[in-house]
Every structure is written in C-alpha cells, then in structure tokens.
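Researcher: I've got a protein sequence and the SMILES for magnesium ion. Could you write out the 3D structure of the bound complex as structure tokens? I'd like something to compare against our soaking experiments later this week.
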Amino acid sequence: MYIEKAIKGETVSFEWMHCDANKKNIPCEVQLALLPEDKNPRIYASIVDITIRNETREKLKQQNKKLAFQNEEIEKRANELTITNRELKKTNNELDRFVYSASHDLRAPLKSLLGLSDIVKEGMDPDNIIQMEQMDMMKKSIIKLDDFIEDILQYSRNSRTEVIQEDINFEETLQNFIKEHEHMNGTNEIKLNVDIQQDIKFVSDKRRIKVVLTNLISNALKYKDLSKENQVVSIDIQCSKDKALIRIKDNGIGMSTQDKEKIFEMFYRATKISEGSGLGLYIVKETLDKLKGTITVQSELGKGTTFNVSLPNQLTVLI
Ligand SMILES: Nc1ncnc2c1ncn2[C@@H]1O[C@H](COP(=O)(O)OP(=O)(O)OP(=O)(O)O)[C@@H](O)[C@H]1O
Ligand SMILES: [Mg+2]
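Model: Sure. Here is the predicted complex with magnesium ion in place.
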C-alpha cells in the first residue's frame, strides 16, 4: 500500500519496527519517494532509527503531564491563599473595630472616675497626708490607664483611617502642643527652643503629624537628665517644596546602642523611669509609614537624644 502510493508520486512516511540480526526490535521511520525522470519507476527509501527520538518524545510527554499537575496544584494553592487572605483581612478589620470601640467605651468611666477623685479629694482633710497621697496615687493610676488607652486608640486610628491631605501650620501645631502640656509634671525647668522655618505651603495629615510630634516631644521632656543644670529640648522644623525636616533634640538621659535599636518595637521600654506603655515610638513609626516619612535616632547614654524625621510634602502629590 505504501509502495503503491509512492509509485503514484506521493511522499510516504511511516513508522516501522525493524527486527535486527539479534532479534532486537528497533523503531524506525521510513520515507519513500519516487525517483524523478526514470523510465522504470524506482523508489528511494530512507530508514532512520528513531529510538532516541521516541524516548525523548515519551520523556517530554511525562514532563508535560507533571507540569500540568503542578500547575493545577499551584492554581489550587493560589485560590486557597486568596480565600485565606480575604478571611484574614476581615478578621483584622473586625479586631481593629473591636479594639477601637472597646478602648473608646473604656474611656468614659475612667474620665468620670478622674472627676470623682477630684471631688473626693476636695472634701478630704488636707492634714491627713497619707489619705491625700493615696488619692494622688489612685489618680496617677487612672491617668496611666487613660494614656495607655489613648495609645491604643492612636494606633487603631492610624491603621484604620485613610491619610488626609490638609494645610499644616507647624507654628500653630506646636503652640497648641505647648499649651496642652503646660502642666505636665516637671517640665517647667526645661528650656524649650523652637525654630520653625515655614514659608511654603505644606500639605499632610494634621492628626497624624500631631501624633508624631506629641510622642517625640513628650519623650524628650519625660526622659530629662535631672543631674544636668540646664535641661534643654530643641525643636527645629524646616519646610521645603518636597519635605519637612523635623529635629527634636534633648540633653536628657540618652540611650545605649542596644536600646536604640529596639525602641521602635511594640511595648519596648529602655528605662525604668518610663511609666508609659512603650507604645509611643511604635505608633510614631507606624504613623510615619502611612505618611511615607522616615525617622532616625542618634543617642548617647548620659548625653542626650536626637530624633530626625523626614516628612514628604503632599503638595507635590496634589499638583
Ligand atoms: N528622648 C528620649 N531620651 C531617652 N530615652 C528615650 C527617649 N525617647 C524614647 N526613649 C526610650 O525609648 C523607650 C520607648 O519609647 P516609647 O515612647 O515607645 O515608650 P514610653 O515613652 O516608654 O511609653 P509611651 O510613649 O507609650 O507612654 C522609652 O521607654 C525610653 O526608654
Ligand atoms: Mg513615649
């Protein structure tokens, strides 16, 4: 049948199993073609051993099967990951909402406790020093708890809410901070040097900037070095078209190199002086991440600490 076709002039190609002298089967490809311009029809036959080709084809088939299976597995894993991711986001959101509303609701009874403790103290005998001291201790504990809740609220607000773009007046923000912290314990002896260079519009998120400044400045005031005669905190802010460079420098107790590396971690406190929760700088870092800003610290034990913040001017984003 193949030869008939070849005689008709068709090019014929087929696979054939050749049995060699040792009775070994060798797969071959045979091609038949009619030789041109010959009086008697003559056929040219080429026989090629295709053992290796067949083996390679078989291997490729197996590889393809494996790849198809792996692809299916990867697709399955990707789908599972998408579902897990969605569930995690949902749980995260719910947790954030829970933390926010629980913290928010805890504050009201604390505020009323604070008010009540003032009233009770007013009615107390001022000569009963022990009772007066106990009352002060109670008030201090309430304030500490309230500060902790405020930290949690700040963290939660930062992670839940979008960044707002509004005009920032650094002078006004700082004056407000100074007014609010006038009565902070033991800050009267500290000299506050403020130098603000802002002759350009600066756009960022007011609330978040307040969180950053408040935490850094109150740390600078809190970790003062009582052994030094002149306690100084300097705040320098320089605004440009691209960014604001904020430097908060104190000559307080400073930090060791090991502590310096950990202070941005959650709940880390480098000194026993701290009565805080160790959340402040963690919140500062998270907040700056949202604002696409950066923070670095230089500090030396016994000498003082300087925090440098770089904050992008969102004005360039708006244009
Ligand atoms: N200006 C500073 N000088 C010396 N130590 C500092 C200064 N700022 C921060 N620290 C150290 O870094 C630690 C972490 O600071 P952070 O503001 O996160 O927590 P905190 O002040 O202890 O508590 P919180 O801010 O939550 O009330 C502090 O406990 C303190 O040991
Ligand atoms: Mg702090």
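Model: The chain has eight helices and ten strands. The chain has three domains: 2-49, 61-160, 166-318.
Researcher: Great, I'll pass this along to the crystallography team.
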